[in-house]
Amino acid sequence: MPGKSITKEQVKLYMNYKSSGNLSQTACAAKSGFSTRSARTIDRGKHHTQRAKKPRDYKTRRSSIDAIWASTLEPMLQDNPELQPTSLFIYLERTFQDSNGQPIYDQSCLRTLQRRVATWKATSGPGKDIIIPQVHVPGKMALSDFTNMNNIGISIAGEPLRHLLYHFRLVYSKWSYAKVILTGKSFQALSEGMQEALLALGGAPDEHRTDSLSAAFKNLDPEAKLDLTNQYKALCKQYNMTPTRNNKGVSHENGSVESSHGHLKNRIKQELILRGSNDFETIEEYESWIQQIVANSNRRNSKNFAIEQKNLQALPGHMAMDYELVSTNVSNLSMVIIRNMTYSVPSQLAGHVLTVHVYQKRLDFYLGISCVLTLARKYSKDTASRYVIDYKHVIHAFVRKPGAFRFCKYRDELLPNDSYRKIWAHLDSTYPREASSKMLLRLLKLACDHDCEITLGEHVLSLIAEEKTINISKIESCFNKDNPKLPAPSANQHTISQYDALIHKECHHAA
């Protein structure tokens, strides 16, 4: 049509009509909406719609930023390439104002500034770090890392469990091992988890890498070159592994284990949904459940694992030390302090110096070379009290000093369970002050001497429920008789005349 430019769609329509072969050139041009002359120009390939469009090297409209870009903004970016467009815009608002104190550059300039800064960084900015893919060799490298599990919401017997997972992973086959960690990112946790993983693996790789864990590396001095801790160095030497680490703050250099954290956590969340509950009876049950999830994942990589296992080093004849050594004095309170927690020990050990092997879940106490006591380890983050008291260690001292019980600092921790707390509440509210303390201590001593803590507690609670009088002597007689290891003692009462005769006889010998 006259007065209108021919579009590319019209040219395409003309070519379609012409390719059919049923219409003449004039008819095809008419049906496409232009003249026969234009059709001849198109057939020669010289129509303007058939020429390549020249790139535009000019701006369609000017921006107010153009006046200050080259003189102000670009030099600022050259000096500090990390500057962001928002920061530059704030600078413009503060620096360029009119006579009324109002900013000359308003929000309408921000989008233009953002595009201009992005273009400058892409063409003139500093180079960026890139991820370089690596060739993984079987048996070459293993990685260790810890990941926080608090946001998963795991609980043990109804109590929230604050913990980490130690994650060991082979780079080539993606074989993994996971362990529940209660101590934080300590060397003891790293050593215990890594050695368990190597034992389950059946061999050791050539290299072990971490992400600058403080448990393995001393990160306080940036100028230190040989900053391996002695313990970690000895641990890797034990298994003939070369200890390495990625650069600080560059997590993708440890990516083979970092990325798998997310996959493992997602798998755990999905399994919890299928399980229907986040609560477990014991930590051991939870650990077993985690191990089953990891084992299922390892089965999917069994083909590559079989290849890698052939290239692993043999394990040494014995394990390295996977505990921390602590030397402590037993106070005259019959207590020791380990990692900010106060533990009771048998009173016979008072005054002695003990060596403690601090594991993640237990404490082994050694007197010389003999292990004299093992206690379950507790953590301050999991309990409101710093006292961990076993009444069996100190009950005989309390029986001799019953008045000390009522105002004892660790009175509540001395009671072994809720049953005895209920018994104490009843005795304290029902009987006189001195009598109630003595009655409870006699019950605890009876439970200790005859190993009847649970049955004794249930028996006394039943008496309280039936509103019967608690006769301690009768209860002691009952439980003594039921225990064949402690028969009732028998004694013959001597007469006064026999005692007088003994005195006269001694006086005669003295004369």
What does the secondary structure layout of this molecule look like, with pairings?
Blueprint (H helix, E strand, L loop, with lengths): L7 H13 L4 H8 L3 H8 L22 H14 L5 H11 L14 H14 L17 E8 L6 E2 L2 E2 L3 E7 L5 E6 L5 H15 L5 E4 L19 H9 L3 E4 L9 H21 L3 E2 L2 H18 L1 H8 L14 E6 L5 E4 L2 E4 L8 E6 L3 E6 L2 E7 L10 E2 L2 H10 L10 H4 L3 H13 L2 H18 L2 H13 L6 H11 L13 H15 L1
Parallel strand pairs: 1-6, 2-8, 6-7, 11-15
Antiparallel strand pairs: 1-4, 2-3, 4-5, 9-12, 10-11, 12-13, 13-14
Helix pairs in contact: 1-2, 2-3, 5-6, 12-15, 14-15, 14-16, 15-17
Short description:
The protein is of the alpha/beta class and 511 residues long.
What does this molecule look like?
- With 511 residues, the protein is of the alpha/beta class.
- The protein folds into five domains: 8-50; 66-123, no CATH class; 141-309, Ribonuclease H-like superfamily/Ribonuclease H (Nucleotidyltransferase, domain 5, 2-Layer Sandwich); 324-384, no CATH class; 391-482, no CATH class.
- Helices cover 44% and strands 14% of the residues.
- It contains 18 helices and 15 strands.
- The strands form four sheets. Strands 5-4-1-6-7 form a five-stranded mixed β-sheet, sandwiched between helices. Strands 9-12-13-14 form a four-stranded antiparallel β-sheet, with no helix packed on it.
- Strand 12 (353-358) and strand 13 form a beta hairpin.
- Helix 2 crosses helix 3 and helix 14 packs across helix 16.
- The longest helix is centred in the middle third of the chain and has 21 residues, at 255-275.
- The radius of gyration is 41 Å and the shape is elongated.
- The N and C termini lie far apart (157 Å).
- Mean pLDDT is 84; it is low at 219-227 and 484-491.
